[in-house]
Amino acid sequence: MKIEYKINEPVSTDQFIELLKDSTLGERRPVDNRECMSGMISNSNLIVSAWHEGQLVGIARSVTDFHYACYLSDLAVSQNFQKLGIGKQLLSLTQAQLGPECKLILIAAPAANAYYEHIGFTHNPRCWVLDRS
C-alpha cells in the first residue's frame, strides 16, 4: 500500500472532518461546528498529511514557532490505516520541520497515553486548560 506524505498540502474542511470521524478523534472534536473546524484547519501553521490514492488518511496538525515549542493539536489516522506506522511517520516528518531545540507538545486522549509513551514521549502532568465561560 503506497502512502504519500505531504507538508502543508491544502486540506479541505470536509476532508478534515471526515478523517477525524473515521479516526475516532471526532468524538472529542467539534465536528458538527463547521466554522470551528474550518478555523482549526486554516489557522494551523504546520500540517503534515498522509494520502492514499488521493484520500486523506492521516494528519498531524500543529501550531508552532518552529524554534521552541510545537503544539501538536491533532494526530489522526483513519481506522482502516492504523497500525501501519503512519502516525509515527507523521510525527517524524513534523519533527523534521522543526528546529533542533523545538519541543513537540500534545494533550493525549486517555486511550492514547500508552501509545505516546511507547514511541518516546515523556509524560508531563503540568498542563492547564482555561475554558471560556
Automatic annotation (TrEMBL):
GO-annotated molecular function: acyltransferase activity, transferring groups other than amino-acyl groups
Annotated ranges, domain N-acetyltransferase: 3-133
Family annotation (InterPro entries): Acetyltransferase_Butenolide, Acyl_CoA_acyltransferase, GNAT_dom
PANTHER family, per the entry: FAMILY N-ACETYLTRANSFERASE, PUTATIVE (AFU_ORTHOLOGUE AFUA_6G03350)-RELATED (PTHR43233:SF1)
Entry protein name: N-acetyltransferase
